[in-house]
Structure formats: C-alpha cells, structure tokens
Amino acid sequence: MTPSTSEHPPHGHPDASITTHPTSGPRIASAAAASSTELTHLKVKLRDALRQFPDFPSPGILFEDILPIFADPTLHGALLRALEIQVRAVHGDPLPDVVVGLEARGFLFGPSLALKLGAGFVPVRKKGKLPGPTHSARYQKEYGEDVFEMQQDAIQPGQRVLVVDDIIATGKTSISPFEEHTKTCGSAAAAASLVHSSQGHLIGYFFILELDFLKGREKLQAPVQTLLSGQPEASSNST
Length: 239
Fold this sequence. Notes:
Elements: H1 24-49, E1 51-54, E2 61-65, H2 67-71, H3 73-91, E3 98-102, H4 106-117, E4 120-126, E5 134-141, E6 144-151, E7 160-168, E8 174-175, H5 186-197, E9 201-210, E10 224-229, E11 237-238
Parallel strand pairs: 2-11, 3-4, 3-7, 7-9, 9-10
Antiparallel strand pairs: 1-2, 4-6, 5-6, 5-8
C-alpha cells in the first residue's frame, strides 16, 4: 500500500491544492435563469420608456418613438444589456462575427452591441454615402424605390452576420441582385442581399420593437428576434 504523502494523499481525501468543481450543469441552468429574470425586468423598463405619437408623420399612423431610451444613460445601458443577453442566449455558440446596422436608427445601438459581443460593426447606407467599391440592393418603398449599399470588403466570406434595426413593421417588396426569394421585407431583405453578395452567413435579424400584427417576420428568410412588442391590431398603420 502506498504511504500517504503530499504526492499521494489518503484515499478519499483529495489533494487540497487541486480545485475540484461540481457538475457545471446546475450552475449553467442557474445563470440562465438569472439572465432570463434580468431580461424580463429590463424589457418592462424599456417598454415603459417608449412614446407613441398619433397621426405622425401622416394621418392614421401611430408612431413608436424609441429616442427616450437613448436620452437617458440608464435606459441606454439597459437596452444594450437586454440586447446582449438575448443575442447571447440565441446566437451564443458561436457569437456573430459581424453586426450589420441599417441606416439610420440601426446606427444608434449597432456599434455598441457589436462591441459588447466582440464583433465588428458594418453600416448599410443609402446610395452614394460610402466610399470605394460597394454592393448594392434596391428595395421598394411606399412611394418608389430606394437603394442600400455596403462596402465590398466589409464582410469576409463565411463570417457570421447579425442584421439589426429598430423596428420590424410592414412587409415591403425588396428587389435585390441575390435571389428571387429575397423579395420580402424592404430594407431588411435588401440588407440580407448585401450580406449574401459578400458571401457572409446571415444568422438572423434582431429588432428592438416588433409590430406583431403586421407579420413582417413572415416575409424574411432568416430567423428573427425582437426585444419588445408593440401596438394592438387596432393601430394598423404604424411606424
């Protein structure tokens, strides 16, 4: 029988210099539950901060104003924390390599979210706003077409890309150079076309607010996550 020494501790009494850990499963479950509780609290706080303006910018439209969130540093921090929790829960293994923000309100939180996730940020802008070679995608608006552009070298082939914007609402028609099935939800679908043109891998969309009754997510060809829901069906013309 081997004598007990510092190199050979007694049977049933592990070396105190070696740290042992219980099974990580319960600890992970506990952390997930804590994050879920925190996220629920943050969502309530953020939803209460939104303002609605009837008949703006035209009669019959109930405008959802997210700007009070950015006017208050506490709320701004709460938004970024809530977005981070939800993105990590859905896309955490692995996280996105790139966050793509749509002009203009996607620029309000896209760069900060990318920083928290350890990802790069790439802007999608209106035609003529970016220098150098660009990919372009046209999309249909209520009163005609518009064009989104992204720099050709902004996304590397194979990178995992998350597209973010403030609100997913109506489903407009996108006219893009990618494939016929990208004729879906306006600017968001145009952004998807730009990601595919760069040979990036679109893992999904993330919006701060969704107007559920307009069913915009049904017209997009990648998973959609939203932080908040807004407006009952009675408010059918919303922005």
